[in-house]
Structures are given as structure tokens and as C-alpha cells.
Amino acid sequence: MPYEALIFTGGDWCADKCRDLLAEYNGNTRPVLILAADSGYKKALALDIVPDLLVGDFDSMEQPVDFANVHRVPVEKDDTDAMLAVRKGLELGYKRFL
Fold first, then answer.
1. How far apart are CA 38 and CA 84, in angstroms?
2. 24-45 tens-digit pLDDT
3. CB 3.0–4.6 Å: which of 2, 15, 53, 60 could bond 39 by disulfide?
């Protein structure tokens, strides 16, 4: 059963902390879903991490043409892209978000 999901967002971040979190899962058998919320995609790629799913309205970056697993949402919405990534993770059965 899915357990934890890591979400890369477009806000301030600490690359070292993300690397440390991912290193904890290296070799771990628990499934980890990696989501990117809009421009968080660029942050994941900066760490050589390819997200499992990209969620967003692409108001802060162009939708990548070479990445197929995208859940695009309208710009006019009630939730932030990060919250939509959380909702998508919940829909997929994940219970804890990092």
C-alpha cells in the first residue's frame, strides 16, 4: 500500500534537505511517489529527479513537451498547485506528504 509522497513546489526550498529525504528512501521497500507542483518540476530536475507526476496550471512555467505524465488544471481554480498535488496523492492512496 502506498505510504509517502514527496512534493516539489515552486516556493523557497532547501536542495540539501530534499537530497537527505530521498537518500533515506534509497533501498527502502516502501513506495514513494514523487510529485511536482508546477515549477517545482524544475527543482526536481535540478536534483536529477524525474517526478512520477507533474500537477499544475503552468502559470509559472511552460508545460514540458518531453514529459507525458501531466495532470493539467485550469488557471482559474480554488486551490494552489501544491494543494492539488496533495489531493492527487490522496486520490492515489498516499497518506503522508513530505
1. 10
2. 766 565 558 899 998 899 988 8
3. 60
Q: What is the pTM of this model?
A: 0.80
What are φ and ψ of residue 82, in 5° steps? -65, -45
Exposure pattern of 17-55 as b/e (b: 16+ CB <10 Å)?
ebeeebeeeeeeeeebbbbbbbbbbebbeeeebebbbbb
CA distance 3 to 95: 6
Among 18, 1, 4, smallest CA distance to 86 is for 4
SS3 at position 67: coil
* Residue pointed to by grid coordinates 529525504: 21
DSSP 8-state class, residue 44: H
